[in-house]
Amino acid sequence: MAPYSSARPGDPYFVTIHTGEGILGRFDMAAFLDGNPGASVHAASDAGGVVAPLVPYDRAAWTAGYTANAWGLHIELCAFAHMTRAQWLSESDIVLWIPWIGENRTVRSPMSMLRNSAAWVREVSNLYGIPARKIGAAELRDRVGGICGHADTSAAWGETDHTDPGPNFPWDVFIALVQGQEDDHMPEDPNNPYLRKSDSEYLAREMEKYNNERKRGDEFVVVTLSAAIAELSDDPSLTKDEVRQIVDAAEQQQTAELKAHIDATVADVDEQALADALAARGIGGASPAEVKAALAEVLRRGVGVS
């Protein structure tokens, strides 16, 4: 739960849609906000579901300027405001070039994310009697209830200059989903996670699934990286001494960028488990420090593993 919030002057009368612009997992978004003293949000959504409440609904999250914070409920979608309508409605994952990052990023099944987000919006709208309709700046200023984007709150009060969720956000489809209209875009899932007793129970289940996924991911990294290092050692053009020299050189010449990349990529990998996996492949006797150095060399050389 994001710890940064403030008291409301009254019940919220609108829900605001935001895009995260770079953080592409709901739990990653929650973790980022948990350590950010200047920002918070009530919910975060991706293709897998919604994590909420990150801020109690009866308190103001810090996400869109004083007035919008005071009177709104806010959800971050793990997506980008420059997505096209077709990309928003894609059932499949999409790949976007992000100019300010200088790399491609993958948004998982945006249509699934819209469904998940709409279910949460419907839930909190029912809780506070907020109508399932799109509203703009004029309605916001007149205290007309509904659903809007961050761009609308910016236009209403001028307290921020954000334009998310962007000009191509499919408001017609999204509002229909919030209204519960069952069409080709609605899921047929009897295990809908929104049919739950409470947000806290749902969050506990989601966190358990997330931790299990992380554990499986760590095991996968150990196996694949041990295979990669073994492949490096099996290179017929390298003698054992040369392999050792490569490892030693890598340990001495790691750049800060490479170290940061390693930390971000395999921060939770058990070095001893990786050493044991290497030993099982015939490369025994490596210390944790040597394993880390060899890992750095694998990443530096880009050794591929099928």
Strand-helix topology:
Blueprint: E1 5-7, E2 14-19, H1 26-34, E3 43-46, E4 49-51, E5 59-61, H2 66-71, E6 72-77, H3 85-88, E7 94-98, E8 103-107, H4 110-128, H5 137-141, E9 146-149, H6 150-157, H7 171-178, H8 199-233, H9 240-253, H10 256-266, H11 271-280, H12 288-301
Parallel strand pairs: 2-6, 2-9, 3-6
Antiparallel strand pairs: 1-5, 3-4, 7-8
Helix pairs in contact: 4-7, 8-11, 9-12, 11-12
Describe this protein's structure.
With 306 residues, the chain is α/β, with parallel strands linked by helices. The chain has two domains: 191 residues, 3-Layer(aba) Sandwich (Lysozyme-like), CATH 3.40.80.10; 91 residues, no CATH class. The chain is built from twelve helices and nine strands. A hairpin with a 4-residue loop joins strand 7 and strand 8. Helix 11 packs across helix 12. 34% of the residues are buried.
Q: Would you summarize the structure shown here?
A:
With 306 residues, the protein is an alpha/beta fold.
- Over all CA atoms, what is the radius of gyration? 24 Å
The top-level CATH class of the largest domain is Alpha Beta
What's the number of domains? 2
Can you give the mean pLDDT? 77
**Count of discrete alpha- or pi-helical segments spanning 4 or more residues:** 12
Instruction: Assess the beta-strand content as a share of residues.
Output: 5-15%
Q: Helix- and strand-based class?
A: alpha/beta
